Amino acid sequence: MYVNTYMKAVVSDFDGILIESEAAKAIGWYAAVKRLKGDLTDEDVENIIALNDRGQNMVNVIIEELKSEQNSVLPKEVESMHRLYRREEGEDKMSKLGIEGIKSELKGKSDMDLALWCAGGTTEDFRDNIWNVFLAEAEGFRDLTQKQREEKLRELLGYRTDLKAPFMILGAKPIEGNQRFFGRLFDVLGTDKVALVNQSTSESIKNLFDIGSHWSTEPRIPTAFGEYNPRKEDPCYGFPRTFNVGDKKLNDKTDAYKKACEVMGMEPSETMTFEDTTSGIEAAIRANVSIIIGFNLAESTQNLSNAHYVVGNTLEKISSITTGLNDKTPEQVRRELDVLAGESVIGKN
Q1: Most exposed of 79, 228, 235, 245 (fewest Cβ within 10 Å)?
Q2: What are the tens digits of pLDDT across the range 39-63?
Q3: Domains identified in the chain, total number
């Protein structure tokens, strides 16, 4: 529903829009699996967290192992197998192949392929998918009681939390075209009218961008719109404010969207957003965001069909909408996007 008001702000997803980190997350989860299995010691983890020479060498070994090996044992639960395969191939092909056909197809994939397929949804979704693929049928894990399994899942999440930052710092990459697009949004709207919502924590954002991060005296991931500045008296300087579900101040991503709009003094119907996941789009819909634009990189397996529009590879394809954005109604922005869709520059759902 598009209302007759001006487009006042952008409230956007962060991970997958401004940085590309799905592979980095998958590798971090796989490292947590190795820690749970005992293949990484406490000392190994300390070295990885410190990002010293030995730690970085171990990270490289883990990455190469994921890319070249096929050590995983495929989940025996039909539901888990279906969920894993559905993200890549879709319902139609899955139903034609049947469970044995799916097993045959998945067995030809590397562990990196499978780890990436586990991505998407909440942290718990990612954790459960990783468990089903890499641990559920592994020696020492297949005969656990429900209580033992729950305890191991907590351990796995704990190890993942410990290992998340170094793998993100080493593996996440800026999506430069999208960052330039956001730079234009800042010029038009101002940084106080652009907010980011994500499932992560403030500490994770700080570690990725802060010059004062204990890993380096330089920003780990460059931005096209200035330095990250967490000063309370000036929270928007050079970087948009963030609303982090992982801080436990917010119930979910829908709540984050609503809170961002509340802080900026507007209704969700006066904003637009960019999302790269099915769950993120659903959160924006529940929050009543006016225009929802799905974004996908070439390798994305996310279903973006519930977004109003879909842009591939770079948001710079729609840079024209930023001109005078704060003087346009959502309906006017929609008409401009319709023209781009009619020219096959972007997709429309």
Answers
A1: 79
A2: 999 999 999 888 788 888 888 888 8
A3: 2
